[in-house]
Design brief:
This protein is of the alpha+beta class. The chain has 3 domains: about 30-45 and about 185-270 and about 490-519, D-Maltodextrin-Binding Protein, domain 2; about 65-180, Dipeptide-binding Protein, domain 1 (Alpha-Beta Complex); about 275-485, Dipeptide-binding Protein, Domain 3 (Dipeptide-binding Protein, domain 3). It is about 30% helix and about 20% strand. The chain has 15 helices and 26 strands. The chain has a 7-stranded mixed beta sheet, with helices on one face. A 5-stranded mixed beta sheet has the order 18-17-19-15-20. Strands 4-5-7-6 form a 4-stranded antiparallel beta sheet, with helices on one face. Helix 11 (about 375-385) links the parallel strand 17 and strand 18. Helix 7 packs antiparallel against helix 10, helix 8 runs antiparallel to helix 11 (about 375-385) and helix 14 runs antiparallel to helix 15. It is globular. It starts with a helix and ends with a strand. This is ABC transporter substrate-binding protein. One of its GO terms (cellular component) is ATP-binding cassette (ABC) transporter complex. It holds the Pfam family SBP_bac_5. One of its GO terms (molecular function) is peptide transmembrane transporter activity. Its main location: periplasm.
């Protein structure tokens, strides 16, 4: 009995030891790699952020490179590669202290000298940077230790906002060797490979430390490999998503409407895109030179119907001439200045101006062809008919439309027109681009507005916010612009329900740092 008991205990000990070894081996096994494949409609044209202006390219460069500053969802500016900064009293000198210990993907240091390299390169005419003008009036840069100082020839209030923009991503100097460019950055993902018009392969940066307030994950992205695959046809992209061939895809607006009610998928709209859609007028042509008629047309527009029917409930209405969430944007203030949906009040204004069922106001509704916009314009045509405005829709392809509008907006006689457009950015300064004479497609107004637009660029903080409010109030009380929807067009993403943590940031950036893939 004693022998049997001893043997039994030895057997037990051997079994326990074997179990412990097995358990240890299991613990020691590396975790399975989490990979993500995203289908997009078009490829990037360049991975050099100072050589491209396309959103599709900048969405990729934003994954590889970081920005000097970052922006929170309320439009406030936060640290990025710079952990602090100061601005001189005259608004012409900015000093940025660069975070210690930032490493490029090749192991080299990213320091104040690297920032100087980027700013100098970005504004150098020889670079042919399509975004050079957005950097503002940079006149020079200097470095002292870990501080880089940027001098401007005149104050430029939007400067810090711009430095959060995907257009201002900073490359590591080792990226540039003569005419050759290799994408080496400090961002959350490293460049692995690129097969043109097929796919771009990235891998997680194991050394990454996040400071972007839109991202919760403090370090390395949870996914290990990220593949961005080009599938031009919308039907094929959706088939790949539904079959599980890809984890995420760019859907059409119609597909997004279907997917959002399917528990197996998630749909993401670009809420922080900075995009705003507005209706505008050929205000130099009678009778649209009358602000009361412009107001009546604005009162007829049922923005809720445009958002919920034409855009499948994937966008919201906006009260301001610039998008929500940007610096100084105050939706309640804008609502108090602008017109509200009120068809009966609109009819009364039209009657007062001499128009009614027996005397219709005939206008062109000049538009460009994009998903969602088409149906919105059809609803808009019905809205205008209800107040005695006979609007004939005239549609053009996007590029041809804006070329055409340059000529239309110069005219002072002829057939009056209502037209629609959209704009995006990370700062209300895009009002300058739109309305400072001659303005975007010649839509600029007058010397009074020009002066206000110039003044807001010379200011900062509360003083600049107040001037931007003056500009918005002027546009809206005179009904030069009727805010419609935000975001304004088709930057959408869809994923399988097993994807969690994906976000779309400012300027429709794609944020994968927080993404986890469920088993």
């Amino acid at each position: 009995m004693i022998l049997r008991t001893t043997l039994s205990r030895q057997a037990i000990r051997r079994s326990l030891a074997a179990a412990l070894v097995a358990a240890t081996a299991i613990v020691a096994l590396p975790a399975a790699a989490a990979n993500l494949t995203v289908a997009r409609s078009v490829d990037a044209d360049s991975l050099d952020p100072q050589k491209t202006g396309t959103t599709q390219s900048l969405q990729i460069t934003n994954l590889i490179f970081d920005t000097l500053l970052t922006m929170d969802k309320d439009g406030s500016v936060h640290p990025g590669l710079a952990d602090k900064w100061t601005v001189s009293d005259d608004g012409k000198t900015y000093a940025f202290t660069i975070r210690d210990g930032v490493k490029c993907h090749d192991g080299s240091n990213f320091d104040a000298a690297a920032v100087k390299f980027n700013v100098d390169r970005a504004v150098d005419p020889a670079t042919v940077n399509p975004n050079a003008s957005a950097w503002g009036p940079v006149s020079g840069t200097t470095v002292d230790g870990n501080v880089v100082t940027v001098k401007l020839s005149e104050p430029y209030g939007p400067f810090t906002s711009f430095l959060t923009n995907i257009q201002s991503s900073l490359v590591c100097p080792s990226s540039v060797s003569g005419a050759e460019f290799k994408p080496i950055g400090t961002g959350p993902f490293k460049f692995v490979g690129w097969t043109r018009n097929d796919s771009i392969q990235l891998e997680a940066n194991g050394e990454y430390k996040n400071v972007n307030p839109l991202i919760q994950n403090p370090g390395k992205p949870y996914i290990d490999k990220l593949t961005l695959k080009v599938i031009p046809e919308a039907v094929a992209r959706m088939a790949a998503l539904r079959s599980g061939e890809v984890d995420m895809a760019e859907p059409s607006l119609e597909e997004a409407g279907d997917l959002k009610s399917d528990a197996g998928f998630k749909v993401y709209a670009a809420d922080l895109s900075g995009q705003q859609m507005v209706a505008a007028f050929t205000w130099k042509i009678k009778p649209l030179d009358n602000p009361d008629i412009r107001k009546a047309i604005g009162m007829a527009m049922n923005r809720d119907a445009y958002a919920n029917i034409a855009f499948e409930g994937l966008v919201g209405t906006g009260n301001c001439p610039v998008a929500p969430n940007l610096f100084a944007t105050d939706e309640a203030l804008c609502a108090s200045w602008g017109v509200k949906y009120d068809p009966e009040a609109a009819k009364a204004l039209m009657v007062k101006a001499g128009y009614g069922p027996d005397h219709l106001l005939k206008v062109k509704l000049l538009v460009h062809k994009l998903p969602g916009w088409d149906q919105m314009h059809q609803i808009m045509q019905q809205d205008l008919a209800a107040i005695g405005v006979d609007a004939e829709i005239e549609t053009r392809e996007v590029a041809a439309f804006f070329d055409y509008m340059k000529g239309v907006n110069e005219k002072t006689d002829g057939e009056p027109a209502v037209w629609t457009m959209g704009m995006s950015g990370v700062d209300p300064d895009y009002l300058y681009f739109l309305w400072k004479r001659p303005g975007f497609v010649n839509m600029g107004l007058n010397a009074d507005l020009d002066a206000m637009l110039e003044q807001q660029r010379q200011l900062s903080g509360d003083a600049r916010a107040a001037k931007i409010h003056d500009i918005e109030k002027y546009l809206m009380e005179n009904a030069y612009a009727i805010p419609l929807l935000s975001p304004g067009w088709g930057w959408l993403m869809a994923s399988s329900a097993k994807i969690d943590g994906f976000k779309m940031g400012y300027m429709v950036s794609l944020l994968f740092n927080d993404v986890k893939v469920a088993e």
